[in-house]
Amino acid sequence: MSNSRYKNEYTAAPIPDGPQLEYISYSKFEDDWNSQLHSHPFMEIALVVGGEGSLLLENSKYPVSTGHLILIPQNRLHTEVSSSHNPLEYYILGVRNFSIHEELIQDSSTEANPALPLGELMSLIEPIFTEMFHEMKLHRAGHEMMIQSLLLRLAVLLTRRTDLKASFDSTEEMRRGCAIVKDYIDSHYADKITLDDLARISCISKFHLIHEFSRYVGKPPIAYQLKRKIQESKYLLESTDSSIADISYTLGFSSISHFSQRFKLEEGCSPLKYRKRVSQGRQNLKRR
Length: 288
Known about the structure:
Order of helices and strands: EEEEEEEEEEHHEHHHHHHH
Low-confidence stretches: 102-110
Helix content: 40-55%
Shape: elongated
Distance between the termini: 75 Å
Mean pLDDT: 83
Strand order of the largest sheet: 1-2-8-3-6-10
């Protein structure tokens, strides 16, 4: 596979709250290419300038060819597969702080489609990619500001000439590994879970997992698990006649006293007082 890739080192500070180029590459498929599913914690935008093939995005497959703009959201498994007789040729941008509203990426059947046929818009979009590539390759004075302006021009053209809506979000989406951890905790919050378990599931070191998960969710993984346990205990206290002991056991607390202690720290009262308060509130509503 013929491939040239340039990573932006940001020797000058990028414009605050604006799109930031992580890298740009140019690729042309050859016989040695091996397509593998992968993901990024930022958006990728690809422009097909030759050939044909397919985009594999999660569990879906989309045909692509010359003149397609491909929009790949953050943290989505994807890869490109080229036709053997007409090899794919494309530029691809990795862009932080930039996103396209996915529900507006649609084709004629109104199903979400990340491959957008540009038509006449190709003549305006392709020069932006080629100029950005050469700016990164040559590293002339002021190249970072030029790249920033080209990214903004690309966003304006997309929103002005199509139904797509672009936004500049300075907060990154959670890494795919952290998303896996959150889903796992949501499904297994009553089980005994350790950081070692979560690090193995996510393929992220314990240190980085705590940091990344806290940044997105607002608290470390084990603290998030406790929060989910307390949420479920409130539901059980409100909607069932289960004893405090049974609820404590069901949610995996080591003892009734441990459950009561953690509940009081989160809610400001004991589980029993919480249940009585909810019951009293319902009785008051019935009297009205």
